[in-house]
Amino acid sequence: MTLGPGTRTFLVFAALVVLGALVFPSSFFYRVGTLVWINTLAVTGMVVLLGYVGLVSLGHAGFFAIGAYATALLPQYGVPSGLAMLAGAAGAALLAALIGRPILKLSGYYLAIATLGLGMLIWMVLSKEAWLTGGPDGMTVTGFSARNLLKSVGITLKTAEAWYWLCGAVATLGAVLAVNLGQSSAGRAFRAIHDSDVAAASLGVDVARAKSAAFVISAVYAAVAGALLALANGYITPDAGGFMHSVELVTMAVLGGAASVYGALVGALILTALPQVLTVFAEYEHMVLGAIMVGTMIAMRRGLVPALAGLLARRRAARRAGRLARRVS
Amino acid sequence: MTSAKLGAGLSALALLAALPAAAEIRIGASLAVTGPAAFLGDPEAKTLEMLVEAVNAEGGVNGEPLKLVLYDDGGDPNKARTFATRLIEEDEVVAVIGGTSTGATMAMSPLFGEYEIPFISLAGAVVIIDPVQDYVFKTPHTDRMACEKIFADITGRGLTKVGMISGTGGFGKSMREQCLDVAEASGVEIVADETYGPNDADMTPQLTNIANTAGVEAVVNPGFGQGPAVVTRNFAQLGLELPFYQSHGVASDSFIELAGPAAEGVRLPATPLLIPGQLADDDPQKQPVTDYIAAYEAKYGDTPSTFGGYAYDAFNIVIAAIESAGADDPAAIRDAIEATSGYAGVTGVYSFSPEDHLGLDLTAFRMLEIRDGGWAPVE
Amino acid sequence: MAELLQFLVSGVTVGAIYAAVALGFTLIYNATGVVNFAQGEFVVIGGLTAAALIGAGVPPLIAAPLAVLAGLVVGLLLYRLAIRPAGQAPLVSLIIITIGASIFLRGAMQMVFDKQIHRYDGFSGEAPIGFLGATILPQSLWIIGGSLVVFAFLAWFMGHTRAGRGIRATASNRLAAALVGINTRAAMNLSFALSAAIGALAGVLATPVTFTSYDVGVLVALKGFSATMLGGVGSAQGALAGGLLIGLIEALTAGYVSSDYKDAAAFVVILAVLFLRPQGLFGARMTERV
Predict the structure, then answer these.
(1) Contacts of residue B9 in chain A, CB cutoff 8 Å?
(2) Residues 64-83, chain C, touching A (beta carbon < 8 A)
(3) Within an 8 Å CB–CB cutoff, is residue C269 touching chain A?
(4) The pTM is what?
(5) What is the domain count for chain C?
């Protein structure tokens, strides 16, 4: 029996969500787990943009923040949190669609600076307009509790556990959708662009349109992840939209391997859990983190997941070759 | 990644997080030891480490050794919240000190009510303690009080028209809002309102605009870090002669070093920590101030800053509460903190109440002026 | 009038710093195709080393070259240990490597130096020079002069020396350059060393005005990167123009519009320019590695 890639992704992600819940000893682990799933969701958007199409964005934290702040602000005007989250995703999609066309004509480092500028502009508005957003000190997010949501369907859990399950479920859904997208005709168009704009165009792909679509999709992923973080933390600051957070999202994608959702998961897991582990290094924390980033990229320039998969495949091939050689001799 | 590997990774994480269950009293802290607010968080962390060492050298608290679990949140609210969860759940601390920045504090603070663990913040903004939350306290004066103190001094000089130039970081932004808010009640009018980024190199355009504003009589600069020192130098470069006020955010000797001769005549509200030699002998803060400075200089060879002072007071309030309430029940520690009355610290004399979780009034601020490269009280 | 002049003075001073950082970006990009996000750390290393030496009583005339040398050594190490082993890695991997290196260097500086803010007195005193109602610090003249000298040096070096032509040839086609006997490895070593030295020099000159501390490198790199891309990556004229332009936009926006949105104004201009000229102001159209 062979499973489709979408089903396989669902099973792997769902199993990992359940496994986490089985082994986590305390709310702290659920908290870190929740952050891992939220980051996985945001980075899955980067997989679509960077892994499938090959476009670099250094401004995606801006979309993340749009989702977060929509979810923080709209409930103050009587909008339910769920609707506010959708509005945030729609807002991010709209902005990405509007700005995407002109920006995505650029390539390489020019695209990087343009997306960086876009992210910085969003961050600046959030920091400066204190009457609305509370400024750099941030604002409280109220109006939604994962615990109550699950309670309403008859499941009673601690708050931290409820968030873990909710974010795990959304991340799983996001990963399955991304994998299915990759298998579709749009996904093939994306990969054709990844190899060469010109070749893709000669195959009849509307390059500008496809790039714009990938940009919008990845923006929606970031916005939903931002909304989840705002709700789970109950507090949000403009840092969520800052340059360093954009860099963090790209780093997670590249470190894990931007070509697949498994890379997104591994990258998110490592960079989220690592700071918790690195506290033992105290003063040396940043040096260790920097060295890990540099070392991984030198040794495994396509990321951890492809490198490990390649290693396994090679070993299997070697074993097969060995068996073959023995049989021949 | 296989599930076995994930499991192995998680158990490694669990091992790292696990702590020996010895009979020790654990106090937690999450501070911005690195990052843009490291300027504040670093002396706070050093102060806490120094105090814990001193307490243990004298036999601990109620005969039990004290352990400080300190995490560096880099000023990131998201990290701070994770560390707060870790302190409460994994490290099983009985009280938490920290939150160098207001953002980090606010992201953490709901947890303490939920888990019933007392928390003393070292951040400035008034929103931390207004409205009052049962388990959340703070030791620094609010930025609102700083504005009131500065404006009172300005009106005392017979001036009313004020130009403001504020940093756009959390500290400057929050204080700017508070100053705008209390200006009218304090009898001053804000006639110019400029800002600058925390790492800007030159603020002469903004200061030129303020100087060209009709009727401006005094200038106030809310902010911390290097910005205020650059503003002060630019102020002198442009040859401006107006009365110039800085905030408590730069109340340390390093400000005078960085701003150089340009700092002469600058006034700011500060704690008595800057003027140990000029305190009256019957001043209740004289003893803690001289003790703290002596201990800090002996250990680090450096003068302590106002921010370290906030940590000093928070620590001593927590320890006094544990001494009276025991270390077994965090809720009892909270009650003891709230019952703190007349505690003379380096920042001020604290008296908490169920309605007031800051416990300071305007008298805790001294208006100082920089004269001959040193601090002099203005009376 | 005096007002406008003051804004221009401020803009040119700040812009010259951005330009010096951008020139460092340009050199490395030209030789290796890498935009080095750790460039800001060279600036900080220069500033902090000079501050430490001058604080210890070393005369500025000796401290400054030593600080530049420190930057140069770190630049070489960065190339040897992080960039060269990565070989022909894709663009995003190189971005992550240089960002990782900058995080590492920041951690190291926090250990070697401290977390305090540092400055030292300007090389020609602190007394402001007044003209036509505006004032300028003597150190600002050092900064502006320094940027111009670096620019002139680069223009001469790249165009008129054997080593410079080697760097250019290496940039346009590494294999072809190697085939015609150019030592491409030496060219890349040289470009990293020089670029780091330029960054450290910018730090040494700017610190009396801007101050420095171990973690400002990110912001410095961000401004320098913006200036580089506005001018067009790989062009020395572009780096100079981009830096000055951003400085002037910031100062004039702060002066005439709103100081709150002066940084935003710079990014809006960058986006607008790239929409109209995707290769930046002075950049050549060329295909890039992705």
Answers:
(1) 269, 273
(2) 81-82
(3) no
(4) 0.90
(5) 1
- Read off the pLDDT of residues C90-100 as tens digits, 9 standing for 90 and up: 888 888 899 99
**Is the pLDDT higher at C93 or at C143?**
C143
Give me the residue spans of the domains in chain A. Answer: 5-269
Superfamily of domain B144-276+366-377: Response regulator (3.40.50.2300)
Q: What is the ipTM of this complex?
A: 0.87
Q: What pLDDT, on a 0 to 100 scale, did the predictor assign at position B20?
A: 46
- The verdict on B14 touching A (C-beta cutoff 8 Å) is yes
| Inter-CA distances, B73 with B43, B309, C216, Å | 15, 20, 18
How far off is chain B from A192, nearest CA to CA, in Å?
A: 28
Span C10-56, pLDDT tens digits: 999 999 999 999 999 888 888 888 889 999 999 999 999 999 999 99
The predicted-structure confidence for A137-186, as pLDDT tens digits, reads as follows 889 888 787 888 888 888 888 888 999 999 999 999 999 999 999 999 99
C6 at interface of B, judged by CB pairs closer than 8 A: yes
* C9 interaction partners in chain B (CB closer than 8 Å): 204
Q: What's the confidence (pLDDT) of residue A142?
A: 85
Fold adopted by B3-142+289-363:
Rossmann fold (3.40.50)
Query: CB distance from C276 to chain A under 8 Å?
Result: no
The chain A residue lying nearest C283, using CA atoms, is: A110
Long-range contacts of range C147-151, CB-CB < 8 Å, 24 or more positions apart?
C147/C16, C147/C17, C147/C19, C147/C20, C147/C23, C147/C202, C147/C240, C147/C243, C148/C16, C150/C20, C150/C23, C150/C198, C150/C201, C150/C202, C151/C19, C151/C23, C151/C236, C151/C239, C151/C240
Q: What are the Cα distances from residue B341, in Å, to A304, B191, B344?
A: 58, 41, 9
Q: Is A135 close to B90, i.e. CB distance below 8 A?
A: no
Which of C119, C129, C207 to probe the B interface (max B CBs under 10 A)? C119
**Residue B16 confidence (pLDDT) above 70:** no
CATH class of A5-269: mainly alpha
